[in-house]
Amino acid sequence: MTTLKMFVNGQAMSGGSLNHALRDARLLGPARTAPAYRFYSVRDEFPGLHPVTEGGAAIRGEVYEVGYEVLREKLLPEEPAELELGVITLEDGSGSFSMRMRAQALTAPGVTDITKHGGWHAYLSTR
């Protein structure tokens, strides 16, 4: 089976409402992005990463080893329209697939910059 690395930073993380989609994937462990992203809450329902050239931060999440079938049939169908699949850089310099905010979604109502919290769980703990 062909696999890829998938960084998740919201509801697909352990204990989240979408983690069931990764039941057939292998958790590689906690990870952080390179400090090259802004992090947003969309209506306090889910987060999204967006790459920036300045003012970015490292965002906490988890990395999974995911088969193409799991990605195609279980995880991607659960993702909201504001996100798209892309490649990000992790803190160790390696690449990983991840869901990222679509540029046009950044200005939508209900989108809040939560970068200062460094992760979804930290942000939710302030709500």
Automatic annotation (TrEMBL):
<feature type="domain" description="Allophanate hydrolase C-terminal">
    <location>
        <begin position="5"/>
        <end position="124"/>
    </location>
</feature>
<dbReference type="InterPro" id="IPR036568">
    <property type="entry name" value="GGCT-like_sf"/>
</dbReference>
<dbReference type="InterPro" id="IPR013024">
    <property type="entry name" value="GGCT-like"/>
</dbReference>
<dbReference type="InterPro" id="IPR053844">
    <property type="entry name" value="AH_C"/>
</dbReference>
<protein>
    <recommendedName>
        <fullName>Allophanate hydrolase C-terminal domain-containing protein</fullName>
    </recommendedName>
</protein>
<dbReference type="Pfam" id="PF21986">
    <property type="entry name" value="AH_C"/>
</dbReference>
